Structures are given as C-alpha cells and as structure tokens.
Amino acid sequence: MLLRLQNSIIYGPIASRRLGRSLGVNLLPFYQKTCTLDCLYCQYGWSRFSNLETAKYPSVTEILSALEQALKNLPVPPDYITFSGNGEPTLHPEFGSIVEEVKQLRDSLAPIARVAVLSNSTTVTRDSIRAALEKLDDRIMKLDAGNAASFEIYNRPYPSFEFNRIVKGLASLSDVTIQALFTGGKDGNYSPGSILDWVDKIVEIKPRKVQIYTLARGYPAPTIENLSRTELNHIRQRLSAEHIAATVY
Asked: Which one of 34, 165, 198, 231 counts the least CB within 10 Å of its CB?
C-alpha cells in the first residue's frame, strides 16, 4: 500500500532505520507530491510534473513557527531534524534561508540534534543549492543509477535534469552520503552491468558512506521486485573492494 502524503509541515519523530528518532520537516505542499523524479519505487506513488510550475510552498515563517512549537513540545530532543516530506525538499524557493534559520532554531532548542536532508540529488547542479547543502550536518543524496539510460527508466526524471551533471554535482559536495534503493525485476536496477556502472559513479563521487536498501513500503510499478539480503550484501562487497564504506539496511 502506498503512503499518504504528509498533511503538515512537521511530522514525527519517526523511528528511522538510518537516523534514529527523526523529526521530519516537509517544505512542500500538503496536497500534492512535488518532485523532479518519478521513481518506479516511490512510496507516494507517481509524480505529476505539471505540478512543479504551480506548487504553493509554505512560507519560511510558517515552517519556523511549526518547528519551534514541535521542538518545545517534545519531551526528548530528536536525533535528527530532517528535510524530507512530499517530494524533493530543495525545490522550495527559499531553501537556503530555511537551512540557516532551522540551524539557529536547532542550536537554541535542540543542540544535540543534527540537521539533515534526504534529497533526490537533481538540484545539486545549482550553485545556490550546493551552498545550502554544505551548511547541513548531513547531506543524504540519492543515486540509484549508474548511467543515463538506467536513470531514465528507473528514476524517470523531469526532462531538464541530466545524469552526468548530477554526478558531477555530487562529486563536488563534501562529506556526502549516498543512498541507493535497489530492486530486481524487468525494470529494476540490479544487474551485473547496472551495478558495475553504479560502482564506477560512486568511486567518482567519493562519498563518506553509502546506504544500500531495497523495497520496504508500497510502490507503484509492477515491474520491480524486492531483493534479498544476500543480493544487497553483494553490492556492499563491490563497494568494499573499492574501499568505500557502505551499510545495508
């Protein structure tokens, strides 16, 4: 079953496999998925790219007010304050300002929490977005494909996003974490050629670490399927051979 869209700015804290107690911050509209990719595995279902031009984002004031109230009401501070939500958080036109303001709020109300983003990486080609990402404690960036052809099939990008430019943008970030969701099936990304190309791109990016996982929630495409722990560990071992730290979730 697909997940319902978040209907508020703040959600959680949720128990995350990777981030512990994560307080989610949804910078995107409540009424639609707003994303530059249309991934076969997305837990929120298919994207409608026509929505990108008409999206109405919550204001900076609304976002900061909601976060301040949530942090004041929590009995225990979260491990992470995480930009995620109903699509790609860096699409918010004030993303840079929001990052700075949220960090100040964190320092005041929850100094032990780290501020992170879960991003699909498409906007990393923009100088302003990379500058904002560098101010975060953790940059967890998506890369599921190893070449443009696989990217088109598996992630189904909005036409203006070029795979090789995204890889170069990721390589320019410091201490980046790469997350990758692998699946089998007709349109999955788990094949010898796909894995070889993907590992080559990871070597080029030189991430601090890589997070590897497979389907854990509902997904819209009938042409992909779950992978076994053994198959995921095979990918991890390929990275280990290149001296790249990776964890299977």
From this structure: 165
Measured CA to CA, the distance from residue 49 to residue 101 in angstroms comes to: 29
pLDDT in tens, 196-210: 999 999 999 999 999
The residue assigned the tokens 């100088």 is 127
CA distance 73 to 75: 6
Segment (H or E) for 236:
helix 229-240
Handedness of CA 35, 40, 42, 45 (dihedral sign): positive
Plot region of 185 (φ>0 → left; ψ -120 to 50 → alpha; else → beta): left
**Hey, how many other C-beta atoms are within 10 angstroms of the C-beta on 68?**
15
Sketch out the chain's domains with CATH numbers. Answer: 10-248 (3.20.20.70)
Tens-digit pLDDT profile for residues 46-73: 998 877 888 999 999 999 999 999 999 9
d(C-alpha 124, C-alpha 28), whole Å: 18
What are residue 122's phi and psi, to 5 degrees? -65, -30
pTM: 0.95
3-state class of 86 per DSSP? coil
- Tallying the residues shown for the chain, one arrives at 249
Round to whole Å and give the CA distance between 86 and 26.
Answer: 7
**CA–CA distance, 98 with 9 (Å, rounded to integer):** 13
Q: Which residues contact 230 (CB under 8 A, 6 or more apart)?
A: none
- CA dist., res. 247 & res. 177, Å (int): 11
Cβ neighbours of residue 197 closer than 8 Å, sequence gap 6 or more: 145, 146, 147, 150
